[in-house]
Design goal:
By secondary structure, this protein is an alpha/beta fold. It has 13 helices and twelve strands. A hairpin with a 3-residue loop joins β1 (31-32) and β2. The radius of gyration is 20 Å and the shape is globular. Homodimer. It is found in: Cytoplasm.
Length: 368
């Protein structure tokens, strides 16, 4: 087993480090001529796209969190309403599905029982189903109408890392494909997004350099009882995933909040020393986020913030700021999540938890 870990202490750490290459593999051959998207055998025509009036993204856990990013991105680029559903809820709530609905199911393993059932429910009601999965020949890949593989390679650790980042890449590609065909995105802007996507493997590599700093941070904070993750827009979606990572492997209670929601309840929980992870990579929301961060620091919250390189406004306001390599804010989630994975990892290691096999959890949930 130690050979399989490639010199890393845990599969999770190995898989975190595999992300630059995994992102590259997911992109390979799928962006051609600067801004044309080729999605394997998925070929939705402009006519078919014009008929779609709603998209469902259905998944569980980390894959669901990828779906939340997908919603923001598809709606922004392709201007089609998107609902993101937790698969175990979707199948029992009589969702409104018909031939005009496109359903995207997301599943690393392709074997999650609730996601398979949701896929069947969507098909039964006439929806076309696109699957994003990592496992060739999995049940979900066989049941769906179209499949986009993430090509992340085997993911062994229960906590999903490279599957998430590559699911995001796949969702960005779908969003671009729909938008370009529908004509809702400017070609130059699409090219700029594609260029940024291609640069992400290198930027992801740089982010891994935060390892030592995050390890040290974890060694000082692994005794935290509660951790709050805050963000706005795409940062909120990433906050949800960061929070899940921490919970599942370190057993520290944590919650993710849309930062604007704080004052509607959660702020009551912030007291002297409460650890808050504030994501502030979304430049167009920065001022709003800054005021939410101040709401926390005023009450004694201890803030670790993530900001976009070049924006030093949080220095002196929060305890610590780490910088995400400069990128377009639209694609930032793909790299912002990486230090959050590392943080969860080191918190769990400091606590002496079984990182790769957290208690009570299975890699693939094939029962309801
Ligand atoms: C993530 O770290 C989890 N262990 C879990 O939430 C997982 O993402 C979920 O069970 C869905 O699995 P799937 O992607 O294989 O369908």
């Amino acid at each position: 087993e130690s050979a399989e870990k490639g010199g890393y202490e845990h599969f999770m750490l190995k898989e975190i480090h595999e992300q630059p290459n995994a992102i590259k593999d997911t992109l390979r051959g799928r962006i051609v001529n600067d801004n044309e998207i080729v999605l394997d055998k998925v070929n939705i025509t402009k006519d078919e796209i014009d008929k779609i009036d709603k998209i469902f993204i259905v998944a569980c856990g980390t894959a669901y969190h990828a779906g939340v990013v997908g919603k923001y991105v598809i709606e922004k680029f392709a201007r089609i309403p998107v609902e993101v559903d937790i698969a175990s809820e979707f199948r029992y709530r009589e969702p409104i599905i018909n031939e005009k609905t496109l359903t995207i199911v997301v599943s690393q393993s392709g074997e999650t029982a609730d996601t398979i059932a949701a896929l069947k429910e969507a098909k039964r009601n006439g929806s076309r189903v696109i699957a994003i999965t990592n496992v060739v020949g999995s049940s979900i890949s066989r049941e769906a109408d179209d499949v986009i593989y993430t090509w992340a390679g085997p993911e062994i650790a229960v906590a999903s890392t490279k599957a998430y980042t590559t699911q995001l890449v796949a969702l960005y590609l779908i969003a671009l494909d729909l938008a370009l065909k529908k004509g809702t995105i400017d070609k130059e802007y699409a090219k700029a997004i594609c260029d940024e996507l291609k640069q992400l493997p290198d930027k992801a590599k740089h982010i891994l350099d935060y390892k030592d700093e995050l390890q040290e941070f974890a060694s000082n904070h692994f005794n935290s009882k509660d951790v709050f993750y805050l963000g706005r827009g795409l940062d909120y979606a990433v906050a949800m995933e960061g929070s899940l990572k921490l919970k599942e492997i370190s057993y520290i209670h944590s919650e993710a909040y849309a930062a604007g929601e704080l004052k509607h309840g959660t702020l009551a929980l912030i007291e002297d020393g409460t650890l808050v992870i504030a994501l502030a990579t979304q430049e167009h929301l920065f001022e709003k986020m800054l005021s939410n961060i101040r709401e926390v620091t005023t009450r004694g919250g201890y803030v670790l913030a993530f900001a976009m390189e070049g924006n030093n406004q949080l220095e002196g306001i929060v305890e610590k700021v780490l910088y995400i390599p400069k990128t377009m804010e639209e694609v930032a989630p793909i790299i912002t999540v990486i230090p959050l994975q590392l943080l969860a990892y080191y918190m769990a290691v400091e606590k002496g938890c079984d990182v790769d096999k957290p208690r009570n959890l299975a890699k693939s949930v094939t029962v309801e």
